[in-house]
Amino acid sequence: MARIPLVAPRDAGLLGRLAYRYARRRFGDVPEPFAALRHHPGLFWSSAVAESLVERAATVLPARLRDLAVYRTATRVGCSWCVDFGEMLWIRRGLDADHLRRAAADDAPDDPGFDADERAVLAYADAVTAQPPTVGDAQVADLDARLGHAGLVELTHLVALENQRARFNAALGLHAQGFAASCAVPSRG
Asked: Is residue 24 pLDDT above 50, yes or no?
């Protein structure tokens, strides 16, 4: 249960209700972090615009690497809301949910089920997220060789942004909303 009340659509104002309607159409429900942010209209809109711009701009890395890094970060911080939402996005892209879920395992950066780039991205997400961060020169040089400068910057930005999201959600007591379950595909029996 959230530590503060979430702003209901009736209390969100005209523009807030329109934003809620857009979110409901896009994701199937209004994300709870969205409804918590609505208490502060300026931060609500700056966050909505920033998230939209990041989504459009972060196109250097393949989606699977972006999503693995963000998911791994969410699992390291312990944000069930972020894990749930990340699984939903992954499944909607038609990717293997079991592959993503393996990224939560402690040994994921060493798992041979991930390719070399995926393992490097998972290890980097861990290093950036550690308290204090444990990123080293060799790790950055390796990722720069694999991904290029723009790819490395994109990866770093996405991991840092997910740390911000996950810590916001954890502090306000926002937990999984069931987004991933809404994408479940019945097994063929």
From this structure: yes
Co-location of 147 and 93 in the same domain: yes
Note whether 127 and 75 are same-domain residues: yes
What are the DSSP calls for 55-104, one per residue?
A: HHH--SS-HHHHHHHHHHHHHHHT-HHHHHHHHHHHHHTT--HHHHHHTT
Model pLDDT for residues 48-106, shown as the tens digit of each residue? 999 999 999 999 999 999 999 999 999 999 999 999 999 999 999 888 989 999 999 99
> Do 37 and 101 lie in a common domain?
no
| Residue 113 identity | G
Is there a single domain that holds both residue 83 and residue 158? yes
121: three-class secondary structure by DSSP? helix
* 3-state SS record for 2-67: CCCCCCCHHHCHHHHHHHHHHHHHHHCCCCHHHHHHCCCHHHHHHHHHHHHHHHHHCCCCCHHHHH
State the pTM of this model.
0.92
189 domain residue, yes or no:
no
The residue among 118, 114, 67 whose CA lies nearest residue 90 is 67
Asked whether residue 52 falls in the same domain as residue 139, the answer is: no
Last residue of a domain, one of 33, 57, 81: 57
